[in-house]
């Protein structure tokens, strides 16, 4: 392993600034390479992580990202958890609609990120923060 | 905050993005480019993203915005060097990069801009809509 990342444990990164979003991308790429995702899948999961980490910062007011190498017995993968204790999402269906935004962006972050990963789970409620878990499996 | 350098080559501004940009750096590039277009009077902008291993919605929007700003300032923008994996991901993300011209590499991007200028010149020479209609004998 040349990455220097201990894959046995989750790697945590706090998200409190623009630069932290860059660090999340780099961390996710390192683990995605280590679990041998294809180049296209690496690109997809890093892009999804970039969108979701930015959401954690912009809408959640900052939070943490945890990256873990996982294995389901048949294939390895990468699991990423984005957690914030911000205002939460009031209308989840609307938030997951392409083009819907409350932040002046393109409205593709959440909906686009979901398309780029294999598993997508979101726990949120008004005032309860938001916790998004995504997994990308190696093919 | 890091800044992306802008090089002037003849009538073209060349931006080769070599770092993983923070959102602030991307916004600063937009502003720097607008200023350089006006200061230099360049008619073409080439943005080389060969080194970018992802383009997310923020950078995608920045590229569209740069293309729009430069158009208003009488310059054409061509984005060159997009990696195949980035193109696949962009489409799946749902980003269409409307209004952005692309070319495979810097050389083809420069050709594209040169061809455009020739067409523009011919158009002016032959008489565009702003010129007086020819008086018939």
From TrEMBL, chain A:
Note whether Kinase occurs among the keywords.
yes
Keywords for the protein's UniProt record, in alphabetical order: Kinase, Transferase
**Entries under Gene3D superfamilies matching the protein:** Histidine kinase-like ATPase, C-terminal domain
Can the keyword tRNA processing be found in this entry's annotation? Answer: no
Query: Which GO terms label this protein's molecular function in UniProt?
Result: kinase activity
Q: Show where the Histidine kinase/HSP90-like ATPase domain sits.
A: 40-139
Q: What is this protein called?
A: Serine/threonine-protein kinase RsbT
Annotated source species: Micromonospora phaseoli
Name the lineage.
Bacteria, Bacillati, Actinomycetota, Actinomycetes, Micromonosporales
UniProtKB/TrEMBL annotation, chain B:
Domain of life of the organism encoding this protein: Bacteria
STAS domain segment(s): 2-113
Task: State what protein this is by name.
Answer: RsbT antagonist protein RsbS
Query: What is the native source organism of this protein?
Result: Micromonospora phaseoli
């Amino acid at each position: 392993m040349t990455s220097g990342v201990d894959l046995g444990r989750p790697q945590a990164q706090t998200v409190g600034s623009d630069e932290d979003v860059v660090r999340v991308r780099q961390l996710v790429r390192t683990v995605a390479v280590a679990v041998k995702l294809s180049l296209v899948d690496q690109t997809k999961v890093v892009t999804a992580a970039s969108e979701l980490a930015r959401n954690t910062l912009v809408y959640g007011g900052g939070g943490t990202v945890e990256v873990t190498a996982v294995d389901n017995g048949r294939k390895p993968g990468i699991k990423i958890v984005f957690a914030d204790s911000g205002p939460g999402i009031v209308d989840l269906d609307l938030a997951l609609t392409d083009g819907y935004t409350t932040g002046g962006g393109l409205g593709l972050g959440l909906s686009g990120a979901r398309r780029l990963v294999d598993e997508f789970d979101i726990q949120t409620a008004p005032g309860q923060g938001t916790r998004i878990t995504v997994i990308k499996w190696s093919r | 905050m890091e800044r992306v350098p802008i090089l002037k080559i003849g009538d073209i501004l060349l931006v080769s993005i070599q770092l993983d940009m923070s959102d602030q750096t991307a916004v600063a590039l937009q502003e720097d480019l607008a200023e350089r277009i006006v200061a230099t009077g360049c008619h073409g902008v080439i943005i080389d993203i060969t080194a970018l291993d992802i383009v997310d919605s923020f950078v995608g929007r920045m590229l569209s915005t740069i293309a729009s700003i430069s158009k208003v300032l009488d310059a054409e923008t061509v984005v060159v060097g997009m990696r195949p994996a980035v193109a696949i991901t962009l489409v799946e993300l749902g980003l269409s990069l409307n209004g952005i011209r692309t070319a495979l590499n810097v050389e083809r991007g420069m050709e594209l801009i040169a061809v455009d200028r020739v067409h523009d010149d011919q158009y002016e020479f032959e008489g565009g809509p702003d010129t007086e209609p020819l008086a018939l004998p």
